Amino acid sequence: MTTFDDRERAFETKFARDEELAFRITARRNRLFGEWAASAMKLTPEETDAYAKAVVQADFEEAGDEDIVRKVLSDLTAAGIELDEAAVRAALEAQTIEARRQLIGVA
């Protein structure tokens, strides 16, 4: 029975580690996405930092990526930047790849 218990603990530990890594990748991606949008809006470095934090916070509104896509698309439109939802989602995907690369070195 000890082997089974050890195996169960190992799976639980791996699951916890994987979940933490996924959370960190998502948080980093959201920050990079906010920085990308701030750059498009030509914000100052201080405004960029604040905006990136706001994008990270916006992700806690609902499950999935719809909340941050909606926020960034709305802010870009308000700033007079003409990008469609597909372009914003493509940028989000690019930031996902970059965040993963930064945290685990895999694209």
From TrEMBL:
InterPro entries per the UniProt record, alphabetical = ATPase_inh_sub_z (IPR009945), ATPase_inh_sub_z_sf (IPR038293)
Its domain of life reads: Bacteria
Please give the name of this protein. DUF1476 domain-containing protein
Q: Which organism is it from?
A: Sphingomonas baiyangensis
